[in-house]
């Protein structure tokens, strides 16, 4: 795609040393080209940080502020050790889904790396955050930093008032349930610092009142007659365990409910990222590749820049084969980049196969197709919709069926005409959160009896829970304050008790 | 549109709190790891941090995920040999065969230890944790012998040598202004009238004369205000504040007779060095006196103390006598905290042991903060041990221990300097 330069291009600074001015110039040029491709982004805020600060950022899950917890310290130590001994490089960049979009650049990066990172994070990820429906629905880029500040201060106050240990134990339990603390389908209300502060007090009192009411309805000693089927509480199973605990756990203090809420909100914030890894990384990789090549074609980038850039780029999008010792599943960067490249190819140079498989895409305007795909899909549906036979062939994909009732593994489909659809379905299913994470929901609370909480695990393709389930159930029991049970529903629909944590002491402080 | 913010000079240790929390939470495990590490490393390494590993299981953060089993169907890349319908043997141990269920197995499978680096401070903190110099607190409270003077503002009386000139003159000036101001006001008024009268009537009028007289009186009054008065004087105030003694002397006594071989010496050395390191945490200034002995005792430098070889019999009292003499000569002015550490293999000339007991009990222990005796031997206790054991009951600033191998040092050390409740 050679373009005749309208003006005499003045090449961007080359060499490996960067300066604020050179970063500024790179950013300006990249922004110009991004606008040319109609990328819609939040304003960009580039922050230069040191390796140590990068490790700090790692430790607090990439966020610039977070509350204190030992597990972050553990991650910091692990990162630090890996980095100091040279076993592990740090990511070149961290980008935060906020408005303005904050991109961290590490000072150790060379100038070409800084250029790459700006294109990748500040324009690629940024536009994805702003456009994709999951991020638009589930996260509020304007408020996240404020909310984290609020969370940190609130938890700090709790530590002062109730002791670090009590707060720490509570957070341990909440963290264990974090993956069960998201609404998968309900739209959450928008976060706003002002509203949050205003309503927090109100909420505390209201919630506590409500909980007490719930238990006050207990009849004193009513003799139960017959085996009448009792109404379950909640009437419908609840998938968001943390939400359920926040609203209904009988013994929690108001501040404990608020902490549960904070963990739940943060879990919800990261929820879209877990579902769009392939798309998001692929998108950002595609754009840094496209934007920088565009600049090169305009004559703005030196050959030395391109060589260093391409070397990093190829490392990122390398997909090792299944029998390599580096193999660690499908590389989301590689798959995503290949798919976006392929969509563009199908738009611009479709062949017969593409017309057969993707009649609506082949030959369409690629920018429009891109925009639509970026906005309206997540990994699971994106793969189901756009993974083409060509990409499957290039990756030489094959699917293996592992059924623990069979002696041998079976290759169920490979990259041939009969197998394409099957491979695509299986790959898409791999990114289905319902398949990746166990389906555990709140089933019942014994309102009229011992107040025990029963959860139900509905296995996906007979996959059992891992050994840590017992430990997790202890955390549930700690939060709930009474006996908790976990039942597993087998294929015939029969529920069987698999874990039970008895907690009969009433009115003892749960967190002791 | 872009904002570039240089955050490199912002605070670095954002994770410091989280790191502390981590250390606090896993103190038990870390402490265990540290005490194991001590046995293996040379004492000279105490200046460095330590790498600590904790079983990963202890600090796992549980979460719900799928375990092994059930049906897994996954897509892999790089097909080089399979066609659909092929049956493959299950790879052993996962991973090795490549096409294994790398993803199906989870963290529960392979539990490496969690390894991380303690800084020197953190390491020593743990190392010395709940060890405390015995009787140190008591001494500091009871025996404050050293004072230093420091400034504490100004006073209105004192010795002439302490007069503060600036303050005094400032006071005098203020007083002169205050006392003279009524006259000065009147004086200005009269001067004005005089000027008017001069201009109007000339030099010789009566009014001018009267004004001149009055002005003269006022001038005289102003002049009579003293330039400096005794109550203008200000003196620098100096007060004495008690200064805790922050210096210590440590006596290292070692038997270098033929029966002390290199291994025993090195054990003793580790003991001395630990004591030294411990003292450096409590005192600003520490002197070390090395006394070695066989049948005669001699004060030597550190190198000779540890490395020269002697042979012959053993008369322990010779070292104690020398220690007593040095103590009286150099460290008897009450400004020194005195510590003694004696290492021996327990052999002594039989008749000498009671002498040792007496020397130690009557002439050395009363001066010492602490005296520790270690006997490096695997055999039966010798007569010196029995003799010392008698003193041990009478003095609570005396401790004795038996050590068999370098690995015993650390526990013994803790035992010796166990926190004493005063």
Automatic annotation (TrEMBL), chain A:
InterPro entries assigned to the protein according to its UniProt record, in alphabetical order: Spore_V_R, SpoVR-like_C, SpoVR_N, Ycgb-like
Name of this protein: SpoVR family protein
Domain SpoVR protein-like N-terminal: 17-434
Pfam family, one: SpoVR_C
Residues of the SpoVR-like C-terminal domain: 438-491
UniProtKB/TrEMBL annotation, chain B:
Matches recorded under Pfam families: DUF444
Region Disordered, residue ranges: 87-108
Stretches with biased composition (Gly residues): 92-101
Superkingdom of the organism of origin: Bacteria
PANTHER family the record matches: UPF0229 PROTEIN YEAH
Alphabetical list of NCBIfam families matching this protein: PRK05325.1-2, PRK05325.1-3
Family per similarity comment: Belongs to the UPF0229 family.
Protein name: UPF0229 protein CGK74_09000
Species this chain originates from: Thauera propionica
């Amino acid at each position: 795609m050679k373009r005749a330069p309208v003006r005499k291009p003045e090449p961007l600074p080359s060499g490996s040393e960067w300066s604020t001015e050179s970063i500024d110039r790179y950013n300006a040029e990249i922004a110009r080209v991004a606008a040319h491709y109609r990328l819609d982004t939040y304003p960009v805020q580039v922050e230069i940080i040191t390796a140590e600060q990068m490790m700090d950022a790692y430790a607090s899950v990439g966020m610039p502020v977070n509350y204190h917890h030992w597990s972050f310290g553990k991650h910091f130590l692990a990162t630090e050790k890996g980095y100091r001994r040279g076993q592990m490089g740090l990511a070149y960049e961290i980008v935060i889904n906020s408005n303005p979009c904050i991109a961290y650049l590490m000072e150790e990066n060379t100038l070409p790396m800084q250029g790459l990172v700006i294109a990748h994070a500040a324009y690629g990820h940024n536009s994805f955050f702003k456009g994709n429906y999951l991020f638009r629905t589930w996260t509020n880029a304007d408020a996240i930093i404020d909310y984290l500040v609020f969370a940190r201060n609130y938890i700090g106050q709790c530590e002062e008032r109730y002791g670090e240990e009590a707060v720490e134990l509570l957070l341990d339990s909440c963290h264990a349930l974090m993956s069960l603390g998201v609404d998968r389908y309900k739209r959450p209300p928008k976060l706003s610092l002002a509203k949050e502060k205003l309503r927090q007090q109100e909420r505390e009192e209201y919630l506590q009142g409500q909980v007490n009411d719930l238990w006050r309805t207990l009849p004193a000693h009513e003799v139960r007659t017959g085996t009448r089927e009792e109404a379950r509480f909640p009437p419908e199973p609840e998938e968001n365990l943390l939400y359920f605990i926040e609203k209904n756990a009988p013994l929690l203090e108001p501040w404990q409910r608020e902490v549960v809420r904070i963990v739940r909100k943060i879990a919800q914030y990261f929820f879209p990222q877990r579902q769009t890894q392939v798309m998001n990384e692929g998108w950002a990789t595609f754009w840094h590749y496209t934007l920088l090549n565009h600049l090169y074609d305009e004559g703005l980038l030196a050959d030395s820049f391109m060589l260093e850039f391409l070397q990093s780029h190829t490392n990122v999008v390398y997909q090792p084969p299944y029998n390599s010792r580096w193999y660690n599943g499908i590389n989301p960067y590689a798959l995503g980049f290949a798919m976006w490249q392929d969509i563009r190819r199908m738009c611009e140079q479709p062949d017969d196969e593409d017309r057969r498989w993707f009649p609506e895409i082949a030959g369409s305007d690629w920018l429009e197709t891109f925009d639509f795909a970026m906005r309206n899909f997540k990994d699971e549906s994106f793969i189901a919709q756009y993974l083409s036979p060509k990409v499957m062939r290039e990756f030489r994909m094959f699917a293996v069926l592992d059924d623990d009732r069979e002696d041998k593994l079976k290759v169920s489909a490979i990259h041939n005409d009969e197998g394409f659809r099957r491979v695509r379905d299986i790959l898409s299913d791999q990114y289905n959160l319902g398949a990746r994470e166990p389906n555990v929901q709140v089933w019942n609370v014994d309102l009229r009896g011992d107040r025990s909480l029963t959860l139900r695990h509905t296995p996906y393709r007979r996959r059992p829970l891992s050994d840590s389930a017992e430990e997790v159930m202890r955390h549930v029991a700690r939060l709930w304050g009474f006996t908790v049970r976990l039942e597993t529903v087998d294929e015939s629909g029969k529920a069987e008790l698999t874990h039970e944590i008895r907690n009969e002491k009433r009115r003892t402080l749960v967190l002791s | 549109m872009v904002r570039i913010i240089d955050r490199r000079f912002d605070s670095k240790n954002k994770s410091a709190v989280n790191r502390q929390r981590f250390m606090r939470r896993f103190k038990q495990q870390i402490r265990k790891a540290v005490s194991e590490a001590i046995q293996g490393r040379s004492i000279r390494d105490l200046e460095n941090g330590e790498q600590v590993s904790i079983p990963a299981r202890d600090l796992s953060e549980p979460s719900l995920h799928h375990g092994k089993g059930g049906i897994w169907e996954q897509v892999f890349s790089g097909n080089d040999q399979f066609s659909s319908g092929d049956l493959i043997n299950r790879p052993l141990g996962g991973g090795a065969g490549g096409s294994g269920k790398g993803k199906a197995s989870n963290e529960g499978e392979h539990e490496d230890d969690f390894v991380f680096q303690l800084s020197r401070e953190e390491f020593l903190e743990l190392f010395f944790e709940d060890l405390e110099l015995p009787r140190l607190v008591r001494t500091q409270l009871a025996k404050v012998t050293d004072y230093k003077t420091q400034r504490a503002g100004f006073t209105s009386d004192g010795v002439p040598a302490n007069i503060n000139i600036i303050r005094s003159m400032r006071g005098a000036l203020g007083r002169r202004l205050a006392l003279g101001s009524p006259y000065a006001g009147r004086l200005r008024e009269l001067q004005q009238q005089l000027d008017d009268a001069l201009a109007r009537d000339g030099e010789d009028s009566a009014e001018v004369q009267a004004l001149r007289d009055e002005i003269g009186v006022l001038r005289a009054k102003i002049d009579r205000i003293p330039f400096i008065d005794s109550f203008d004087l200000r003196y620098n105030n100096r007060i004495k504040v008690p200064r805790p003694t922050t210096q210590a002397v440590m006596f290292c006594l070692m038997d270098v007779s033929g029966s002390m071989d290199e291994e025993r010496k090195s054990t003793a050395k580790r003991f001395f060095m630990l004591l030294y390191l411990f003292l450096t945490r409590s005192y600003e200034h520490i002197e070390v006196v090395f006394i070695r002995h066989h049948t005669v005792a001699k004060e030597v430098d550190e190198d000779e103390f540890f490395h020269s070889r002697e042979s012959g019999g053993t008369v322990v009292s010779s070292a104690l006598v020398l220690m007593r003499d040095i103590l009286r000569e150099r460290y008897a002015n009450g400004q020194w905290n005195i510590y003694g550490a004696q290492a021996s293999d327990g052999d002594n000339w039989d008749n000498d042991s009671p002498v040792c007991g007496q020397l130690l009990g009557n002439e050395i222990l009363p001066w010492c903060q602490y005296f520790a005796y270690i006997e490096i031997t695997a055999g039966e206790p010798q007569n010196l041990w029995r003799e010392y054991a008698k003193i041990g009951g009478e003095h609570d600033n005396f401790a004795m221990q038996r050590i068999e191998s370098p690995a015993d040092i650390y526990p013994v050390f803790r035992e010796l300097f166990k926190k004493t409740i005063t």
